[in-house]
Amino acid sequence: MVAWRFHSGRLCLDLMADPPSDAGRLARWLHAAGLVPAGTPLDGVDARWAERFAELARDVDQLVRDQLAGHGRYAAPRLDHLNALAAAPPPAPLAVRGEDGGLVRALAVPPDCGALLAAVARDAVDLLTDPVTLSRLRQCAGEGCRRVYLDTSRGRRRRWCSSEMCGNRERVARHRARTHG
Length: 181
Hints:
The protein has seven helices and four strands. It is mainly alpha-helical. A hairpin with an 8-residue loop joins β3 and β4 (148-150). The protein is globular, with a radius of gyration of 18 Å. The chain starts with 10 loop residues before the first helix and ends with a helix.
């Protein structure tokens, strides 16, 4: 089973970093990302859903990288596609009683692809239109890592998408260079 990394600070950036490649991975990602509550059946997820989420990931990737490049030009077809996806209504959550009597989250209707895409697309629209959030976008400094994340650290000095992954690799490499070099 795949353990996704949700270190970017935004759902759309996490999708961009590791888009699920098939129906099974997409169903697991939707649960892991919290887009659908645990235990929600995702019987409708198929290869077409995976293709649509992969396309959204490519849209977000291009638009975010355009932003990071600072040239102020956005790929119009990508932006138009993102806006079209964001226009659909996202899944409607409900608070229902769980088995123990406490409240748990459920969806009002079984989730469909368009509604789930809308939730991620709206996250991307919120990201791309918020100057404060945009000022926190960073490219991971880890060797070979293409992840983009929001730097919410004090002093805005975060260098890696994940200290546990990319940061640890760099610290190990520096240690080896000092002790073996």
